[in-house]
Automatic annotation (TrEMBL):
Signal peptide: none annotated. Pfam families: Globin (PF00042). Belongs to the globin family. InterPro entries: Globin, Globin-like_OT, Globin-like_sf, Globin/Proto. PANTHER family: BLR2807 PROTEIN (PTHR46458), GLOBIN FAMILY PROFILE DOMAIN-CONTAINING PROTEIN (PTHR46458:SF5). SUPFAM superfamilies: Globin-like (SSF46458). The gene is LOC106814565. Keywords: Heme, Iron, Metal-binding, Oxygen transport, Transport. Residues 1-121 form the Globin domain. This is Uncharacterized protein LOC106814565. It comes from Priapulus caudatus.
Length: 122
């Protein structure tokens, strides 16, 4: 949500975040829920394919490439989401969140971002 409220560049792509909507309207948006679920499912699929890393990488690249049709979309738009993912992970892990868990999520998100950027630019 912070990403959307502080970065108008991101809002133009999202129907749930069209200008005029305030934060509470965005939070109750069904489109936001659907989009958030797609994003998390893409990451979940990577984690689930740890026994077939090539397939996981190919999926990340294809999800990255999907974004190439969005006008003005740049590779760093994926990277800019990292802080939001890290924050979500810290909330989900509550008191189990520690330096080691944080390091694991850093590695996971860097990995996902790297291959999505690769797909976007392919
Ligand atoms: C790591 C970050 C991201 C992941 C994992 C991700 C994942 C996905 C996935 C899986 C879809 C396909 C949804 C479906 O067809 O069911 C999608 C579509 C889309 N994403 Fe992302 N996304 C990310 C970042 C972004 C960002 C930063 C934006 C915009 C600022 C964005 C805008 C969109 C839009 C507009 C679509 C719909 C494209 C269409 O089919 O017309 N995404 N994303």
């Amino acid at each position: 949500m912070t990403l959307l409220t502080t970065n108008p560049d991101y809002r133009k792509y999202a129907t749930f975040a069209e200008f005029g909507k305030d934060e509470s309207q965005m939070r109750s948006s069904e489109e936001l829920e659907v989009f958030g679920t797609s994003v998390l499912m893409a990451i979940d699929k990577m984690v689930a394919s740890f026994d077939d890393v090539d397939a996981g990488v190919a999926h990340l690249q294809s999800v990255g490439k999907l974004h190439a049709k969005l006008d003005g979309f740049t590779p760093n738009m994926f990277a800019n989401m990292k802080d939001a993912f890290m924050y979500a992970a810290s909330v989900a892990f509550e008191d189990r969140y520690n330096d080691q868990v944080e390091q694991c999520f850093q590695t996971l998100f860097d990995f996902c971002i790297k291959y999505m950027q690769e797909g976007l630019q392919s």
